[in-house]
Amino acid sequence: MGHYARKAMGQALELSGDDAQDAATIRALIGIGVVAGDVTAPEIARYARVHLSTAERALEVAVASGIVNPDGTIDEERAREIVGELPARRVAEVHADAARTLLTAGAGRVAEAVRHARAAGPLIPPEELVTQARKAGFLCLTLNDWASAELLFRLAIDLSPLADEERNTMQLRFLAVALSALGKLTEARDILVRAADEAISKDDWREATSVLVQLAIPVEWSYGSKVAAGLLDRVSRMDLDDETRIVLNSVRAMVDAWVPLEVVGDQQFAWISRASLVQPISERALDAAVNVENETRMVALMGWRETHRSPRYLARRREVSTEALDLAQLLRFGYYQIEAAIALGVDALESGDRPGYDSALTIARWVAEQEGSQWLRWRAFTVLAGASFLDGDFVEAARNRELAYEIGRQFDLPGYVAVNTYLLIEEILSRNDPAEMAAFVVASDEPAVSHPLGRLALAFREVRVGRDQSAERHLRLAMRQLDEETSYLLVACRAATVACLLADSGEMNVTDVLDQLVTVLEPWFRHVAVDSFGLWCEGPVALSLARVHEVLGNHERARVMLQFAEPMAREMHDARAIARAAELRDRFGPDVDVLTSEGFDLTERELLVLQGIVKGKTNPIIAADLVYSLSTVRADTSEIFRKLGVSGRREAARRAVELGIVTPD
Fold it and tell me: What region holds the HTH luxR-type domain (predicted)?
């Protein structure tokens, strides 16, 4: 206790003595309460180091004499006057005591603690304050109190140079976590770049790699980022251990996977895939990620999943996404959890597994609610909008889209403009109102149209309002952008819708486009067309194929596809697909029977193996194509023979074609 504190306590213990002394003592005690920020008897007793009864008596006298108001408040002018009577050092001592107390009092008092800490000046050694602020900051992160965590880590970072603090890079990383949760993503990215620079300058490759993981997840932060790529190059030249190299290669694959095609400010609208460049990198990283830390394995899984979006990898993607979500939940980091949950949901939906999709979205929504992060809330609302479209609940879809848009607009989140545009397009197209489409003007040079889905939305609008020539032009431009890694099946199925409408009109000859779409879609007729981010579902691929075959006059194949699509649409509870199937069935007449499961009970992986058998491929070639072990393909081949009731590859191929399970090239 300081000299002035001892003197104040001694005076306070003699309140019944000299009136002048009593008055000075009372004012000193009230002044201490004002400095501490709480003019109550317990707080005065705490910071003046006097007995509670003494503080209570002083407060009663202060109220009676008009120094303190009856409700316990004190006028601001009088408060300044009373505090001004205290020695400067005593004021600083109270601030220091209050800072130490409040830094350990819980997240709710952080703003006060930081204020006191800054006012205490040199009375709290910087080393002590940095340590206390960092500990309290970690606690606030655990409690998802992002605003308090931001204050505390900013304080620790500001004082680190005075404390000769070597852990500043870590503090920058955690400040970025708090900032991104608060929606301040641009500042968070700048902080992470600063943290990476510091780590690299100290030759701390472990910390630098941790920073780069934060820059890469969520992936929307870093598509085509030259800054992230430059940092990766600098870290890769360091002397890294094997596990860090795995993480670094996975991050590189995610950063280099996509090049933005259309950018306005911080908003990206379309991308070019560089799958051939990054897939070998992510595959090697995942193969090496055995007997490693959980976070290393999870980053490798997410890197592989991000770089293998083609439908040919669906079976493996589901396995990878499932494991990634399990690890993300163990690690309990919100960004990992929601990215992994949405990825698994997309993979489940593409497989026609609606319960799996709903389960994954439930996890994503729960994570967003628990974390309280603005970015996670935005991400959850976007996929919930997509789920509402799937159910045919356009009112709920619009509500979720608007909620997502408001969060995105308020915090200028990366991708919010593009996502809102595509959800709005889906909303309008789903209502299928030509008048509304005509009013919804999207210029051909707007950023959204640079994405094939945006261009096809424009083509759909054009054909519905009678501008067939314009529609055909946009359709053909979109077909040039077909890419297996970029919402491949969704783009192809949307193109099929436009092409069929143009063919129905009789004004334009798009037979070549329809033939191309048959080639593109037939290998994947068991899949569901969904975009890579879980925002837009076009229903079973077989349903789009049924419509294309009908237009081309392939009625028998169209019936087979419809037979397959109808039960899938019902199992998915896809209201729009069910309606489209019913309309197509009405045109075919009553002779279309719903397909039974006989002959079609193969797993997704077995179907992929069977496709290879039909094409005459050997097991080693199939294993290499599908990135499975040879033993797995052999086991699947045996199971295929059993299910089809055949004894060899040639008979299995013939039976598969006869049943319509696989269409030969």
Answer: 595-660
Bigger pLDDT: 279 or 163? 279
Find, among 599, 612, 615, 595, the residue nearest to 656 by Cα. 599
Structure tokens at 334: 């919100």
CA distance 136 to 99: 12
Domain residue limits, the chain: 3-86, 168-307, 432-588, 604-659
Neighbours of 470 (CB within 10 A): 16
Class at the top of the CATH hierarchy for domain 432-588: mainly alpha
pLDDT of 190 > 80? The answer is: yes
Single-letter code of the amino acid located at 219: V
Taking the C-alpha atoms of residue 47 and residue 49, their distance in angstroms, rounded to an integer, is 5
By the 10 Å C-beta count (0-12 exposed, 13-18 middle, 19+ buried), 40 is classed as middle
The answer to whether 185 and 153 are in contact (CB under 8 A) is no
Q: Look at the domain 604-659 and name its fold.
A: Arc Repressor Mutant, subunit A (1.10.10)
- Look at residue 440 in the predicted model and tell me its pLDDT: 60
Residue 12 — pLDDT band, cuts 50, 70, 90?
A: very low
- Write b or e for each residue in 153-188: b if 16 or more Cβ atoms lie within 10 A of its Cβ, otherwise e: bbbbbebbeebebeebbbbbbbbbbbbbbbbbbbeb
DSSP secondary structure string for all residues of 274-339? -HHHHHHHHHHHHHH-SS--HHHHHHHHHHHHHT--SGGGHHHHHHHHHHHHHHHHHHT-HHHHHH
- What pTM did the predictor assign? 0.73
- Distance in angstroms (rounded) separating the CA atoms of residues 285 and 301: 9
The per-residue pLDDT of the chain, averaged, comes to 83
Is the Cβ–Cβ distance between 244 and 206 less than 8 Å?
A: yes
